[in-house]
What does this fold into?
Amino acid sequence: GMLGLELVVVFAGVYAAFLLSAYQQTRKADARRTAIYEVLLAEAEQTADFARWYQSYFETNYAEPLLQPYERGERPPIYGLWLPTARQSGTWTAMLEAGVDLLDPAFIQQVEAHRSRVQFMIDQTDRAVRLSDEKIEPVPSQDDFYGPAGRLRKPYRWYPRLLGYLSGNAVNVEASADSLQTAIRLRIAAEQ
It folds into this structure.
């Protein structure tokens, strides 16, 4: 009798300690996951802000001054592109690596897809600036860009398409960042 009771008490104590330890580990994991979500949320907010700024800057300084007058048949000046060079911080990778055991694989995939869109925009911007430096900057006169009918000469017809393309990249990154922010906020709310 007494030995059985002692075994039950010992077993109950060990089991309670195990439950307490599991509870504490779960709380630590939840806190770590929430911290990761908060860092990723801040990064997504900054990315969305940058994409909005980039699109506005690009539209104001390049697309509107060229495309609208060109579509009206005018011969607006063409300038080489100067766009800010951006680099992704290592935050995305660091946070995913820190939380790979805590985060849902579908969420990790969403973050990676977003990060890829951002990197694509950065790469395309760098290529556009290099192309502009090679093809636009060396042209000695604005008249060299246009043919007799007032349309862009064949070697420069890519320029208006490039402007639309770069603006579209910023729109895609902004939409991706906004979607990611929503997903993160839902996950943070679910943690609470």
